[in-house]
UniProtKB/TrEMBL annotation:
Source organism (scientific name): Mameliella alba
Protein's UniProt name: Rhamnosyltransferase
Superkingdom, natural source: Bacteria
Region Disordered, annotated ranges: 48-73, 250-274
SUPFAM superfamilies: Ferritin-like (SSF47240)
Ranges annotated as biased composition (Low complexity): 48-61
Amino acid sequence: MMSLCEMAVDVLTTADGRRKTAKSRAHAARWFAARASGEEIPLGRAAAPLRPARPEAPQLLDPREVPKRKPGSPQGRIALLHAVAHIELNAVDLHWDIIPRFAETPMPAGFYDDWVKAADEESKHFNLMCDCLEELGSYYGALPAHAGMWRAAEDTVDDFMGRLAVVPMVLEARGLDVTPGMIAIFRKAGMDSAVAALETIYAEEVSHVAYGSKWFHFLCGRHDTDPKSVFHELVRKYFKGALKPPFNEEKRAEAGLPPDFYWPLADQTPNRSR
Ligand SMILES: [Fe+2]
Ligand SMILES: [Fe+2]
């Protein structure tokens, strides 16, 4: 039987997106079936690669070189779905990576439940975005994508709390801020399947941010440190630049992120882009 860390590395070393997500979903199903039956899949140990395997396409470009397209045009909508697909594929790897990377830190089983569930949902999100692209005659890999999405993982490769602060509590929380605007674009274009897919993503991402906040607070409690000041310190250390308002205060609150966590890190200068 594969250990949970071996399952994670199996996903991380699979390059093709659809194959990666199929493995991710199958391993998640195995984990939850075992949890339900009382049988135990050991955590085990396995060496996570510094960077996950990725398909040959899309070509990865510096964010400044990725061509910008108007979101109001059909090509712009394809580009938007493609960008979200790329984010979701990164999210699959980010969720599996944390398990073998920080396996030496003892965590309750519920931590692994949360991460495996989120990894399974990210896999579903990638497939949903691929389905939408294919419906429009495109596919994941047809356009260039942002390089450097794995940067947050590399920067926090030896800092578990830094990883939790930056990935779920900053990057995934940002998704809560921007997704309603994307849903509006596809609603206006009458693209029901993209609207439904993005609504699923939006609903499920709240829990991913919440898992991050929950386990970040857990670790602060274990070390008897103040979560808010530790969060500020770690985000300033690992996240380059300020957080960008407007924030989705309602969904952030639902996910256990109070305003005093993110407002002090925000760029509050009007009309300055970062
Ligand atoms: Fe997602
Ligand atoms: Fe997520």
